[in-house]
Design brief:
413 residues; binds uridine 5'-triphosphate
């Protein structure tokens, strides 16, 4: 208790024990434990964020330059060679796949994990099923299972595990699957006070998709599989792109053959201003510039052949060299402070479901990991064949648009 009180005092968060006298011993223990394990360093990030908002000096501008991508035509020329290298690595079980499924999927508006969403029309086709069946195609071709890690969050871990078990992992061998829960971050109000979700629980949210490697290492069961197969590469992928190829032998082979630390699947942008992160170099290191930071001049810049210089958007499908992951794992990623509606209890202990944003969440992003490596290969894929994200219920990047793309690719829904 004393240790917790000290931590709260030092961080100006004593209000978190306001209801301590109303709690049962178990509830109090659970609250004390949550406070003990919650990372309060995010509060320092918030203070820094506030300071920078008030700062009159502008940060020194980064130097953004283009990065060369391996285009479809270049891939085609070396396809057989790349495929052979990739198949060998997969046969030797040097490549693992890692599904990032810890997100809240708020835009889709379902209370279930996003992977449980049924995108079928005349039959049931769940997002998890689509992804696993894609991976099973590679398993079939290679003749070996690809070790599969699934990152969940505290919010969706139990339901994800239960669902996949009930569905018999859609035919994937359970022995090659390891779940791990990602770290959580506290949610704060606009004054930097951590919100309470109930009298005995802090409001927390998943800390973004950037902390996945450390979260994996914190889970003994998952780490054991990483070591057991002595995995050299990890292909991480988003839960919502129902068309992407996972552990794609050509992609794996191209990344290995080009002697880089990261491979990144990219698509050609539909227009210069498309809202996707774009591969580039930042101060000489591989990086991803957000569409908002690209600016008109760079968005339109072309080379001597008239090709746009910043034309390849990322789709959250990366192949990371494990050795590099170990090397960069202790480097701090930037913390993004996002403004959100956060459910909490008010000073009268009543539950509030805000209609307007009322505070901040903290997220670290996978895109920021790229900069920590020395080299990255942008690997072009055909947009129509590999990019069908399900972010929203309708409109752009929605269930409807993903269904249309799946049908275009011959899937019967
Ligand atoms: P998104 O950025 O689309 O976020 O995640 P989201 O939480 O799924 O959806 P919205 O914004 O609330 O609608 C891209 C990928 O990163 C994973 C998601 O599960 C998805 O595969 N992710 C995101 C995590 O694994 N953890 C996180 O904390 C955030």
């Amino acid at each position: 208790m004393q240790e917790v009180i000290k931590k709260l005092k030092e961080n100006n968060q004593e209000h978190l024990l306001k209801y301590k006298n109303e709690l049962t011993q178990d509830e109090l223990n659970s609250l004390l434990n949550q406070i003990k394990i919650t990372d309060f360093s995010y509060l320092e990030d918030f203070k820094e964020f506030k300071r920078s908002q008030n700062c009159v000096y502008k940060k020194v501008k980064d130097e953004i330059t283009p990065i060369e991508a391996l285009t479809l035509s270049e891939i085609e020329k070396n396809k057989d060679k790349y495929k052979q290298i990739g198949l060998n690595a997969l046969k030797n079980q040097e490549v693992g796949a890692l599904l990032l499924a810890g997100g809240m999927g708020t835009r889709l508006g379902s209370s279930d994990p996003k992977g449980m969403y049924n995108i079928g029309k005349t039959k049931e086709i769940y997002i998890f099923q689509r992804l696993i069946e894609n991976l099973l195609c590679v398993v079939k071709e290679v003749g070996e299972f690809v070790p599969l890690f699934i990152m969940t969050s505290e919010h969706n871990d139990a339901s994800t595990r239960k669902f996949l078990k009930e569905k018999n992992y859609f035919g994937y061998d359970e022995n090659y699957i390891r779940f791990f829960v990602q770290d959580m971050a506290p949610c704060i109000d606009f004054n930097g006070k951590i919100l309470l979700e109930s009298k005995c629980r802090l409001a927390t949210s998943p800390n973004g998709n950037g902390g996945w490697f450390n979260s994996l290492l914190n889970n003994e069961h998952a780490k054991e599989m990483l070591n057991k197969y002595n995995l050299k590469w990890l292909n991480i992928f988003a839960v919502d792109n129902v068309l992407q190829q996972i552990a794609d032998p050509v992609f794996v082979g191209a990344t290995i053959a080009n002697n880089v630390q990261i491979g990144s699947k990219v698509i050609r942008k539909v227009d210069p201003y498309e809202k996707v992160g774009v591969m580039c170099k930042k101060n000489g290191a591989p990086s991803i510039v957000e569409y908002i930071d690209l600016g008109e001049e760079m968005a339109l810049a072309t080379d001597e052949r008239g090709e746009r210089l910043y034309n390849f958007g990322v789709i959250l499908n990366y192949l990371f060299e494990v050795e590099t992951l170990y090397r960069i794992k202790d480097q701090k990623l930037p913390v993004h402070i996002v403004t959100k509606k956060i459910e909490h209890i008010n000073e009268n202990a009543q539950v509030v479901k805000p209609q307007e944003p009322n505070g901040h969440k903290f997220e670290m992003l996978c895109v920021d990991m790229i900069e920590l490596a020395d080299s990255c290969l942008p690997f072009e894929v055909e947009r129509e064949k590999e990019f069908a994200p399900v972010k929203n219920k309708t409109g752009v990047d929605s269930v409807e648009s993903a269904q249309a793309l799946l049908e275009k690719n011959g899937y019967v829904l």
